[in-house]
Design brief:
Elements: H1 2-26, H2 37-52, H3 73-86, H4 96-117, H5 120-131, H6 147-168, H7 171-187, H8 189-205, H9 207-239
Helix pairs in contact: 1-4, 1-5, 2-3, 3-7, 4-5, 4-6, 6-7, 6-9, 7-8
Length: about 240
């Protein structure tokens, strides 16, 4: 019975992900090319990285070396790696990227909400709500692939790792959350700098979790110290 229930839930999640992919990609069904000026700008920066085999502080739209700072290097590295590893046309196949990252964001959001609430249908509602978010050339959104939309799955994953690290006292997950926050800063500095004070407020408003994390960490280090002392004791006995 439980196996059938899990299979049904898995099937529901897959159906919703397919639905999200279709509605986002449908935005590009008649025009599978980038639709926003920012997208062309990021493509140019990424192609420049591929051609120069490294970063360049010049504007990719000018033949003369006119200085232009790369303010979102992480996103351009991500794009250039996607272009190189998949062999996709940077312009002709760009319309698939918003749909793929929308699905990735929705799935991680589902895992995050389900983890917090421990309710499957709440996670499903979160996915559907995410899919209903409006997009336009003025406010952008999930129908476009920009540094902000690339950061959305990382934000959800960062929150998931941070919450689990504090609730379980898991140092590895805390370290992963720090790495994810660093990636956010590199991909989209504004997003990364905004997520840090949010995490700090979460620490302040959850003093009970902080105390639990402190004592859990202290216990882990105490156990490791005890093991080291045992090893040292046995070494001493063997040497004598």
């Amino acid at each position: 019975m439980i196996l059938k229930k899990n299979k049904l839930r898995f099937f529901i999640v897959i159906l919703i992900l397919i639905f999200i992919f279709m509605i986002v990609h449908n935005f590009h069904s008649d025009y599978n090319y980038p639709m926003h000026l920012d997208e062309y700008h990021h493509i140019a920066q990424s192609v420049q990285i591929i051609e120069n085999k490294g970063f360049s502080s010049t504007n990719p739209y000018f033949a003369e070396p006119i200085r232009h700072e790369n303010l979102e290097p992480g996103f351009h590295i991500l794009l250039s790696e996607l272009f190189l590893l998949t062999g996709m046309d940077p312009v002709g196949h760009y319309g698939f990227l918003p749909a793929l990252f929308a699905c990735l964001s929705a799935f991680i959001l589902f895992v995050l909400v389900t983890k917090i609430t421990n309710k499957f249908w709440t996670g499903i509602f979160a996915m559907l709500f995410f899919a209903s978010l409006k997009s336009s050339v003025n406010i952008l959104g999930i129908n476009f692939f920009t540094p902000l939309t690339a950061c959305i799955p990382l934000i959800y994953l960062f929150l998931l790792m941070l919450i689990e690290a504090l609730s379980e006292g898991d140092i590895k997950k805390l370290f992963i959350s720090i790495i994810l926050s660093s990636c956010l800063v590199i991909i989209y500095p504004l997003c990364g700098t905004l997520i840090i004070p949010i995490a700090f407020l979460y620490f302040l408003l959850n003093s009970r979790i902080i105390r639990g994390f402190y004592f859990k960490t202290k216990e882990i280090f105490a156990i490791e110290r005890l093991n080291k002392d045992k090893i040292s004791y046995f070494k001493t006995v063997l040497l004598t």
